Structures are given as structure tokens and as C-alpha cells.
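TODO from last week: model Short-chain dehydrogenase/reductase.
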Amino acid sequence: MAATNSKSVANEKPVWFITGCSTGFGRELAIHLLESGYRTVVTARNPDEVNDLTAKGEALVLKLDVTDQGQIDAAIKAAEDKFGRIDVLVNNAGIGYFAAVEESEEDQVRRMFEINVFGLSRMIHAALPGMRKRRTGFIVNLSSVGGLVSFPVTGYYHATKYAVEGLSEALWQEVEPLGIKVMLVEPSGFRTDWAGRSANESKRQIDDYASTAGARRSQSRTTSGKQPGDPVRAAHAIVKAIESPNPPHRLLLGNNAYEAAMAKIEDLRREFSAWEAVSRGADFPKEEQEEGA
């Protein structure tokens, strides 16, 4: 495994730590890892929802709310006391929110940022010291194709995922020289009950947005549980990518994610090229730059 190549642990499988294991990606990833013989720290705000996973392998089940620094510190310590280290941190915990930007309620937006961005950040801060000390480790941040492409009704959700993308891109430049890898996972629609269980919506809905935000809100609710993405295959894909000799910085999951990301690249290329002269014209002329040097 690319992330854990130190001689002292060469003959041991990596220790994984996953946030948000009650449902969806977190649960399926934990199941796959435990059934494959990995020691796995399985966390959830309500541990009763994941206690059944202890029957599948060497699991340490812990209570963890990523907005609670005390619980984070206690979980990291418990994991290191039990297994000696954390090799792979998977920041999976996250929620959504359906609202046009103008409809959005600040308390709901702030709660989402607390979980999706600051919760993820707290976990990174807690796990990195041990990884730096060992000069090995892997941080996996669950983003979304919505961290690359935005759609109506999930504007502030996209804002959280764009934040995760920017943070992760800076992070891998800082920690890769220390032997630590970072990977963003960017899924499209998967059958994780995200829209049904993990995404609130605004109390106020404005008629002017019925054909944009309103239409997509309805579509997201009605297609929940019918998405093309398979969480089990996604779990296998994540492990395969991490165990590869050259793990990607970004792992798209699902046909829709791949197609949307490629279309975004083409849109950016087309618009940037069309405005190239104006963009380049904003600098001082070269002769003035040389004079000021």
C-alpha cells in the first residue's frame, strides 16, 4: 500500500479510521475493509447504529460527532491506544441542504459548514501529528462532483465541497514531501439515502425559483434510492485507488461524475480561451515590467 510502507508495519494491514459510518459510503467502506481483514475504527454519532459491524472483523466502534473537539480527541486517542496508529483517515461524515441561495437559512448553512468543512478540518488536525511522526499516512476526503460542478438548489452544499477541494489541494502539496498522501473522492448520485436522510431543506420556498431550484429539489427527492451509483462498488473503488502504486489526487465515481467533470473542463477551456486577450491584457506591458524589475 502506497501510504504505509515503513519497515515496522510492512507485514501488517493498514489501520483505517472512518467518520460517518451509520449509512452510505461510510458503512459500506467499513464492511468491505473488515471483511478484507483490515483493522478499522468505525465511528458514528450513535454507535448503536454500527455495533453490528463488530461481527465482521476487527472493529473498534466509537462515538464521534465531528463538531465536538472533545469527542475527536478521545476517538483519535482510543484508536491509537488500540491499534498503535492510524494509517488511513477517511473523512466521510457530511450532510446536505436543499435551498436556493436566496431561500437559505443561515443557521442551516452554518451547521452544514461545521460538519462538512470544519469537522473534516478538525479530523485532519487531529490525525496529522501521528502521520507526520511516522512519515506515512493517507487522508481521504469525501467531496462530490458537486465540488467541481454546481447545480440549482444546492448552492451552499457546493460551497462546502469547493472548500474541501481547495483545502485538500493545498494539503497534499504540504504533506506529500513528508510521505503522506491525500485523495479527494468525487461521486455523483449513489444510493446512499443522502437526499432522504442527510439533507434538510429550507422552510421558505420562493415561487420565482420553482422552475430551477424547486424543480431540482423535487427531482432529487423522487430519485433518492434510484440513483445509478452502487455504494458497494464505490467502496471497492476507493480501496483499490488507495492501494495502487500511484493513487490519484481526485477519484471521480460514477458515469455522471465523469461526464459532468469533463464537460466542466471543456466549458472552462472554451470561456477562458474566448476571453484570453482581455485576461492577458490586465498585466503591465512587458516593457514596463522589465523597467520595474
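Done. The first strand starts at residue 15 and ends at 18.
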